[in-house]
Each structure stands twice: as C-alpha cells, then as structure tokens.
C-alpha cells in the first residue's frame, strides 16, 4: 500500500518474538521481522536500461544472466499487548497488540550465475532503493496457551504503517535525487508458534 506497493509486489515475513506476561494480562517484549519477496513492481522501469528488448539480462561472455529482484528487509519492534477477551484459560484469548520499531527495505538481487557486473557493488547501490525509517504495527491476535503446555499458538491480523527515506539519496536508473519521505503500509495475516516458559509451577500434594 502507498509508496511500498509502487516498488514491490506481495511478500512474506518470518518473525522471532519474545514476550513476557504479567498477572493483569499485559504482555510486553520485542521482535525481529525478516521481510522477503520474489518480485518487484514493474522491473523494466528500474532495470530497463540494462535489459535487451526481450527483457533479458545479458551477462559477460554473451551468456544470459539470471537476475531475480525482490524485497529484502526487516523490522525491529518493541511491543505492548493486552488480553482483552480471555478464553480457555487466563493466559489465552483475544489480544490487541501495538508495536513501534525501526524498519529497512530494499531491492534484493539474487544473481544465480554472478556474471552481471552492472548489478554488483558499487553499481548495485544505485539501483537497490535502500530505505530506512520507523514503523507502527497494530495487530489483533487470538492467543492460545495450552493447559498442558503442548499446543501454544497465535493467529494474527495486522496493519503496518511506516515512514521511510532513501539512504542512497540518488537512483542511477532515473539520474535523479531521491530525498522525499515515503509512506509505507501493508496488511497481512500470520501464524505464530510459542514455546512458553512459566515463571512458577504450582504443585499439589496429598498427605495421608
């Protein structure tokens, strides 16, 4: 959505998250989200000057180069959440989560043959659209922590809003400076598997 959708098509993410919960049902912690995509929106507008008329990259020695551009990025977040509708047990139910963090995204290029020097450093930096900024993520999650500590998961719906700016400040393909702020947004759904660690275990003894 917004400026992010003008650069990339659909993408996926993989996250590592750490959360602590208090007795009042509040959770807090942090996460790292790795963003990964396999295509960019309208690659000819960026790499057209390096392609032939059929859209192919011609590498050294007259061999075709296999270049796959796609989103490569990540976010580091600090999160606060609250179980708003308990269900199953006190540690489970519908949860609202708000996160704030720093983000980075760029065009990652996978050169399978490594035979296209025009898209290798230091020229690559002029095409990669590297951006950094801040991001806010709102999420509605259903959290399930099993009484037997075996099946622990969350189902997630989230909205990410961010502002970023080009790190390079210049794009080789356009020959123009790139200094404007970008409004980056995306929506998604996900599944999280938890490995819970309980601070205290209750034990019961029957005395005869």
Summarize the structure.
The chain is mainly β and 208 residues long.
Folded structure, characterized:
With 208 residues, this protein is mainly beta. It has one domain. Helix content is 5%, strand content 56%. The chain contains two helices and eleven strands, in the order αββαβββββββββ. The protein has helices spanning 2-7, 44-47; strands at 12-21, 26-36, 57-58, 64-65, 67-87, 89-111, 131-145, 152-166, 170-171, 176-177, 181-193. The chain has a seven-stranded antiparallel beta sheet with strand order 1-2-5-6-7-8-11. A two-stranded antiparallel ribbon has the order 3-4. It has a two-stranded antiparallel sheet with strand order 9-10. It is elongated and about 65 Å long.
What is the secondary structure topology, with strand pairs?
Layout: H1 2-7, E1 12-21, E2 26-36, H2 44-47, E3 57-58, E4 64-65, E5 67-87, E6 89-111, E7 131-145, E8 152-166, E9 170-171, E10 176-177, E11 181-193
Antiparallel strand pairs: 1-2, 2-5, 3-4, 5-6, 6-7, 7-8, 8-11, 9-10
Strand order of the largest sheet: 1-2-5-6-7-8-11
- Please count the beta strands (DSSP E, at least 2 residues each): 11
Average pLDDT for all residues? 90
**N to C succession of SSEs:** HEEHEEEEEEEEE
Q: Roughly what percent helix?
A: under 10%
Strand residue content? over 45%
Contiguous uncertain segments of 5+ residues: 203-208
Number of domains: 1
- Summing up helix and strand content along with how strands pair, one would put the structural category as mainly beta
What kind of sheet is the major sheet? 7 strands, antiparallel
Shape: elongated
Distance separating the two termini: 67 Å
Give me the Rg, rounded. Answer: 23 Å
Q: How many helix segments?
A: 2
